[in-house]
Design brief:
globular, 33% helix, Nucleotidyltransferase, domain 5, alpha+beta, six-stranded mixed beta sheet, seven-stranded mixed beta sheet, 2 domains, 14 helices, 471 residues
């Protein structure tokens, strides 16, 4: 059974064709977000849509296999207004990074606690509803305002839907009831909006002829949750970390939407087989971007040099690679990066080691924060993303979280997670555990230092971070 899985992201759209024998085609098309004054980030809707369709058609052509289902993973909080009669966009796509809706969140601060109570999120322009309100107040009152997945699916199938994991990132979903909330809609002045029907990730929502023949469409899921599914993090306490520009730690919370008072957020992981699971996420704003900084500064020539140059010991050098600020538990976007403890003997190798330790330490602090609040430590961590190719970095990460690390063997975790959801949609007899494609870790790392040594380093690192925040 071949599935066309579409992964629509911030800077591009990927299409893969996959079945039980493996991935048969991969096509990626770039799109070009515009970074504008005032914190604006926009995408051309037609460029975005065409990148999906063209990638999908080319992947089907390259694979040369009959396609039995089409799945879609989406970037989560990017929105637009569009005409529900024609499907034509009425505004640019307002990207999840766009900050203009801060004017909306600033005036709603008195509702922040209630919003957190109902959604398990924080009031922030990152999420969907503030951007929807901003569009209505500043761009247009015509048509409908939705996330991009709803618009793409409408143009493919004529159906007006979104899945529960995407909806849970909106600030207008009651996360416990998994229903749109009238109270939240009123807070954001969206009570008169037409909202898409909520669907499960293993639901077939319609059909399309866009890729040849009439093919079922389903497997709808937001990007990071798709990777969580692909990596078999199916039960409470199982987690994955994706290392990209930033790093994203997601841990399955089971059937309870835990409220965190530290700024960590809880979302729907997925609704599958009639049950909703939840997950917690923590962010590190700078991961691969810190490696790019090393490249720009001449510390390394390419990312592949990391394992060649990095010292076995940082010789007392500590780095907080917070070039874009710090997220939980500090929530200090104003804090910059730092290096401390350098001596005349300090060289590139020690600095490289300190930066990798700094990225790993932030993940370790997030893991500890989650473990303390939910009462369960990670038994092992599954990881994906470009930086997992660095054996030195992965060993440091395993040492600091004091747990084994399994590296995911594919660069297509998000698309494969969407494909897993579609497999479940097409095969009602499959159990949840049978949805994701089988995989074995490319490499497994075990801690090579003691828990006491890891704890001592983390305490030194946190002390350095907090000292830096005083300046």
């Amino acid at each position: 059974m071949a599935i066309l899985a579409l992964d629509q992201g911030t800077s591009g759209s990927k299409a893969i064709v996959v079945d039980e024998d493996g991935v048969h085609a991969v096509v990626e098309n770039s799109i070009h977000p515009q970074y504008l004054p005032g914190g604006a980030v926009e995408q051309d809707p037609e460029e975005l849509y065409n990148s999906v369709i063209e990638a999908g058609k080319e992947a089907v052509k390259q694979a040369g296999k009959p396609i039995e289902g089409i799945a879609l993973a989406n970037q989560g909080e990017t929105v637009l207004a569009w005409d529900p009669e024609t499907g034509k966009p009425l505004t640019p796509c307002i990207v999840w990074q766009d900050k203009r809706a801060s004017a909306v969140t600033d005036r709603l601060t008195e509702h922040a606690d209630r919003i957190h109570e109902l959604t398990a999120l924080v009031l922030d322009p990152y999420f969907t509803a503030p951007k929807l309100t901003w569009i209505r107040e500043n761009l247009t009152t015509e048509g409908v305002v939705t996330t991009t997945d709803t618009w793409i699916i409408y143009r493919l199938t004529g159906e007006f839907v979104t899945d529960t994991s995407t909806a849970s990132r909106s600030l207008i979903l009651d996360v416990d009831k998994v229903e749109w909330s009238d109270e939240l809609l009123e807070i954001f002045d969206l009570q008169n909006e037409k909202l898409p029907r909520l669907v499960a990730s293993d639901e077939i929502v319609g059909t399309t002829t866009e890729f040849g023949g009439e093919i079922p469409v389903g497997g709808l899921i937001v990007d990071q949750q798709a990777a969580l599914l692909a990596e078999n993090c199916l039960t409470r306490g199982e987690g994955k970390c994706t290392y990209g520009t930033g790093a994203f730690l997601f841990v399955n919370l089971g059937d309870q939407a835990h409220r965190f008072e530290t700024g960590l957020t809880t979302s729907v992981a997925w609704t599958l087989r009639g049950a909703t699971s939840y997950c917690v996420d923590g962010q590190v704003y700078t991961a691969a971007s810190a490696v790019r900084w090393m490249n720009d500064m001449g510390i390394i020539d390419t990312a592949s040099d990391l394992d060649k140059i990095t010292a076995a010991d940082s010789a007392g050098v500590i780095c907080g690679p917070s070039f874009a600020g710090l997220a939980a538990p500090w929530w200090r976007p104003d804090t910059g990066a730092f290096l401390t403890g350098m001596r005349l003997a300090t060289g590139k190798a020690e600095i490289a080691r300190a930066i990798l330790e700094g990225i790993s330490a932030q993940i370790a602090e997030l893991e500890g924060l989650i473990a303390d609040e939910v009462g369960q430590k990670l038994e092992r961590l599954k990881v994906d993303g470009g930086l997992t190719r660095s054996r030195v970095f992965m060993q440091i990460q395993s040492d600091l979280i004091q747990a084994p690390i399994d590296t995911y063997p594919s660069a297509h975790a998000t698309a494969l997670g969407a494909a897993a959801a579609m497999r479940l949609a097409l095969n009602p007899e499959l159990t949840l555990e049978e949805g994701p494609f089988a995989w074995e870790p490319e490499v497994t790392y075990e801690p090579q230092i003691t828990a006491e040594e890891a704890d001592a380093f983390r305490k030194r690192w946190v002390a350095a971070v907090e000292a830096n925040m005083e300046f």
